[in-house]
Write a structure and sequence with these properties.
The chain has about 160 residues and is mainly alpha-helical. The chain is built from seven helices and no strands. The chain is elongated.
Length: about 160
């Protein structure tokens, strides 16, 4: 009942999730202690709902770095999200956004070695995205950025040669 009351007290995803996290811990403790309980089906359902809510909160927070144009942090946060939620329904979008964030970071970098390296990193993210999602609806948006990356790397190679 404690875990269920914490779940019932759980606020919207965009607010502090302390009670949500407490509910999750409580549900897991309940499941470990009473695996044969008649309430297990409900506990599992609540646990699943909590996990979905926490994942969505992480998803929204991760996208926020891109929205505020903090591209370097966006790349890191997206990588962390992808590592934490490898089966996420948002994974394709996150892979794409990681590529776009790295592309935008490179585009806004000063001329020099870092700029070239950042474009090369973006190209790597694009290839990973394309490998995993060859028929993505985001493919066309990604392709033109990839072409710009290749063009910029060639241009930077000429400058440093």
């Amino acid at each position: 009942l404690y875990a269920k009351s914490m779940y019932n007290d759980s606020p919207q995803y965009n607010l502090d999730q302390e009670s949500t996290t407490s509910a999750l811990v409580g549900m897991q403790a309940f499941a470990n202690r009473f695996p044969e309980s008649k309430y297990m089906e409900e506990a599992n359902k609540i646990t699943q709902e909590i996990n979905i809510k926490l994942e969505f909160k992480d998803y929204e927070n991760t996208k926020l770095y891109y929205k505020i144009r903090n591209y370097k942090s966006a790349v890191i946060a997206i990588g962390n999200f992808m590592e934490k939620y490898p089966q996420s329904q948002y994974y394709e979008e996150m892979m794409y956004l990681k590529f776009v964030s790295q592309y935008d970071l490179a585009k806004r970098s000063i001329e020099g070695k870092k700029k070239k390296d950042r474009y090369i990193d973006a190209m790597g993210f694009y290839l990973e995205f394309l490998d995993k999602y060859p028929n993505s609806k985001l493919k066309n948006e990604a392709e033109w950025r990839y072409a710009v990356c290749m063009k910029e790397v060639k241009k930077l190679d000429k400058i440093t040669s």
